[in-house]
Design a protein that fits this description.
This protein is an alpha+beta fold. The protein contains 2 helices and 2 strands, in the order αβαβ. The chain has one domain.
């Protein structure tokens, strides 16, 4: 049995999802801001979920080019009337 076939030899050092390092205080502030937005959405009966993958996709498309970290918030609302 060849053990080379069991080892993932993908070179993952060439690209990163997030260019860092980043200040922990800024990330903490972003976490509180996203949490507050989600709390307000819940109080307004809006279904909202945060997605890092949406933020990364938007950065790759050129949205928010000067931001180090972007979080996308998916929002859906149903009318009860």
């Amino acid at each position: 049995m060849r053990f080379g076939a069991l080892v993932d030899s993908t070179d993952r050092r060439t690209g990163r999802l997030i260019n860092g390092p980043m200040c922990g205080a800024r990330i903490n502030d972003l976490g509180f801001a996203v949490g507050s937005a989600l709390w307000m959405a819940r109080n307004l009966l809006v279904d909202a979920k945060p997605f890092m993958s949406v933020g990364l996709g938007s950065q790759k498309l050129g949205c928010c080019p000067n931001s180090g970290f972007v979080v996308g918030i998916m929002v859906s609302a149903l009318s009860t009337f």
